[in-house]
C-alpha cells in the first residue's frame, strides 16, 4: 500500500491520498469545510486526477475537522459567482466512471449533502446529521438536491426535508436507502474498505448515477398543491419554500437535465431576492453577536459547573430546565416547601412532555431530573458558581435576595438577575461584588425561546460578561450583550411599538386591523393578540415602575383602561378581544371603549390603511432602536436585529428592524404589501 500526498496547488484545501487502489480525496477547509471556490476547484481537479490514474479503482471523498462539508460558502453569495459552479462539479463527480463514496460525519448540510448525493455511495458515522437548510437562508438547494434527493428517498420525504430545512440523522436516512452503511467508528477505514471491494472486482461495472434512477411516480394529483397551500400558511410571504416545491415537482415533469436547469433558475431567483439577502444577514449577525471585540483580549471565562436558580415559578423552572438539559447541576431555591414542590412537579411534567413527543428518551429525562435539586435554604447555595434570580418582578424583593446571595455565595460566584425591566445597577449596589453582578434576561417560555439578553451593568467586569455569554451559548441560547436601561433592548423597543399600536387605536384602527396588518407584514403575531396572550397587566405593572413614564394622557391608552376594567387578556377571557368558549373574536365593547376614550382625549378618528399601520409601527420600532444604538445600550445594529428575530417574532426574511431600516423596502410601497 503506497501513501502519497499530492497537493493540487500549493494552497489547495483539497488533497488526494492514495490508499492502494483507492483515491482518498480530503477536504480541509475550516471551520465547516464550506464549498468555497478553492474547494470546488480542488474537487474538480482531484476527481479528474483520480479518474486519469489507471491504478485507481475507487474514490472516497471525506473531510478533516469536525464535519463533512456543511454547505456552499454563504459569504460568496451576493458576490459575482466564480467558476467552477457547484452543479458542474457535482455532475462531474456523478459522471465519474469509477465509484465515488462519500464518508460522512458531523453536519452534512446544503451543498455538502448535495455533494454526498452526487456520489454513488454514502457511508456515515453514527449520529451524523444530514439536511438541506437552504430555505432558512431564503434559498433552495441549487446543486441538484431537489432532483437527486427525491430519487433516493421519494417525493414526500424530500418535500418534508427541503421545505422545513430540518436535518435528519443518518440512521433514519439509512431506512430510506439514502445511506448505504452507518458505522460506529473508524469512518475512513470503513469507507476505504468499502471502496476496495469495487476496485478488486475484475469486470467492475460503471456505477449508476443518482440522476439515472427513475423519478418517483406521484399518485396523489393534489400533492404539490396541498404542499403549496400548507407552506403559504406556515411560511407566509416567503419565496423559497414555494420555489422548492416547484423544483421538486419538476422531478416528475421533466427529464433530469431539464429539471436541473430549472432548479438553477429557481435557485438564482431566490439568491438574488431581498429575502435571501436578509436571511443571510441574520445568519452572520447571529454568529457575530458572540464576538466581544470590546473586551480585553486576555479575558478568560470562569468555569461554571453548578448554578442556582432563585424562584420556582414558571420562569425559574424554565431556566432550571435549560441548565439541566445542558448537563449543568442546578439548585432550585424557593422559600416555601409547597411552592418548591409545585415547581419540581412542573419541571417533571415538562420533561415528561418531551419524552412523549420523542424529543428526548426516558434515560435523558432521568439524567436531567437528577441534576436538579430543590432547596428552601440559602446556605445550600454556598458552592454554586453562578446564581440566576428569577423571583417576583419587584425592586425591593430583588434587592433583599441579592443581599442574602452576597452573604452566602462564594466570593467568585456570579450573581445574575432575570429581571425584564428593573435597574441592575441598583441591584448590584446592594452587594459587595458589583463587578460580578449582571442581568441574564431569559424570554418566556425560557426552556424554548432561544434569546438571552446579557445585561452589563456599569460595574460588571469583562470576565463576568464573557462567562455569562459563553454560558448562554452552552445552554443553546443566542446570547446578546446589552446595557442597562428600562426594558433593555427588546422590551424597550417593544414598549415603543406597543405605544404606537395603542395610539393607532385612538386614531381609528381596530385591534383586529392592527394585528392583521402586522401579521400580513410578517410578524408572528399582532401586538394585541400578543398582549392578550401574555396578559395586558404585565406591561401595565411594568409601566407603573418606570421612572421615565411619559405624562401624556394618551400613553398606553386603551391598554391601561382595559386593565383597570379587569380585562387582562386570555386569562380573564377578555382583553383586546373577547374569548367566548376560548375562541378569539373582535369585541364591540372594546371598540366602543376606544371610541369614547378617543373622544375624551379629543383625538379625531379616521380609517387607517394597513400600509399606514405597518409604517407607523415599524418606524416606531426603528426609531427606538436608533436611540438605543446612540446611547450605546446595544453594541451593534445587527445585535438589535438578532434580538427581534429571536425574541419577538420579527420576520427573518426582513432581516430585523435595523437591517430593514437600511433596505430599499423601508418607506417604499413594499411596506404595505
Ligand atoms: C447552500 O449550501 C446552497 C447550495 O444548495 C447551492 C449552491 C449552488 N458558509 O454556526 P457556527 C461559519 S447554502 C460560510 O458558529 P456551529 C460561521 O459563520 C448553505 N461560513 O458553528 C462561523 O464563522 P465565524 C447551506 C459558514 O458549530 C463558523 O463557520 N448550509 C458556513 O455552532 C462556525 O459556525 C447551511 O446553511 C457556510 N455554509 O454550527 C449550514 N457555515 O467563526 C450553515 C458556518 O467566523 N451552518 N460558517 O463566526 C450551520 O448551520 C452551522 O454553522 C453548523 C455548525 C451546524 C455547520
3D architecture notes:
There is one protein chain. This protein is α/β, with parallel strands linked by helices. The chain folds into 3 domains: 14-271, 2-enoyl-CoA Hydratase, Chain A, domain 1; 306-483, 3-Layer(aba) Sandwich (Rossmann fold); 490-661, N-(1-d-carboxylethyl)-l-norvaline Dehydrogenase, domain 2. Helices cover 45% and strands 13% of the residues. The strands form 4 sheets. It has an 8-stranded mixed β-sheet with strand order 13-12-11-14-15-16-17-18, with helices on both faces. The protein has a 7-stranded mixed β-sheet with strand order 1-2-3-4-5-7-10, sandwiched between helices. The protein has a 3-stranded mixed β-sheet with strand order 6-8-9. Helix 2 (86-94) links the parallel strand 4 (58-63) and strand 5 (100-104). The longest helix is centred in the C-terminal third of the chain and has 21 residues, at 610-630. The mean pLDDT is 94. (S)-3-Hydroxyhexanoyl-CoA is lined by residues 31-32, 34, 70-75, 86, 107, 109-111, 114, 133-134, 137, 139, 141-143, 145, 287.
Compact summary:
The protein is an alpha/beta fold and 673 residues long. The mean pLDDT is 94.
Write the layout of secondary structure elements.
Layout: E1 5-7, E2 14-19, E3 22-27, H1 37-52, E4 58-63, H2 86-94, E5 100-104, E6 107-109, H3 111-118, E7 121-125, E8 129-131, H4 145-153, H5 155-164, E9 168-169, H6 170-175, E10 181-183, H7 187-199, H8 223-234, H9 239-253, H10 256-271, H11 274-288, E11 306-310, H12 314-325, E12 329-333, H13 337-356, H14 362-371, E13 372-375, E14 386-389, H15 395-408, E15 414-417, H16 424-429, E16 437-442, E17 451-456, H17 462-474, E18 478-483, H18 490-506, H19 511-521, H20 527-534, H21 536-545, H22 559-564, E19 577-578, E20 585-586, H23 588-600, H24 610-630, H25 637-647, H26 657-661
Parallel strand pairs: 3-4, 4-5, 5-7, 6-8, 7-10, 11-12, 11-14, 12-13, 14-15, 15-16, 17-18
Antiparallel strand pairs: 1-2, 2-3, 8-9, 16-17, 19-20
Helix pairs in contact: 1-2, 2-3, 4-5, 4-9, 5-9, 8-9, 9-10, 11-25, 12-13, 13-14, 18-24, 19-24
Bound molecules: (S)-3-Hydroxyhexanoyl-CoA (3H9).
